[in-house]
Predict the structure of GTP cyclohydrolase 1 feedback regulatory protein.
Amino acid sequence: MPYMFISTQIRLENGPTNVGDEFSDPVLMNYLGARKTTMLGNNFSEYHVDDPPRLVLDKLEKIGFRVVSMTGVGQTLVWCLHKEME
């Protein structure tokens, strides 16, 4: 899983942070302390952590991920990260 996205709502920059979808690496999600949730009305699941994005980015950097890009989409902040294949 060399690429991943994390995101948060601008008004919630202190958390929670969305760190993955239902197909994300469970070992990585466990490392981040993420919980898998399905919002009422959605037919998909997402992983969330209570940590702010800064702490999530710090954790991901420790295991080799680097930020490739960051943008704002409406009221959402999104980071794209990449990890070199081993």
Summary: The longest strand covers residues 65-73. Residues 1 and 25 are 7 Å apart (CA to CA). The beta strands are 3-9, 17-21, 35-37, 46-49, 65-73, 76-83. The mean pLDDT is 91.
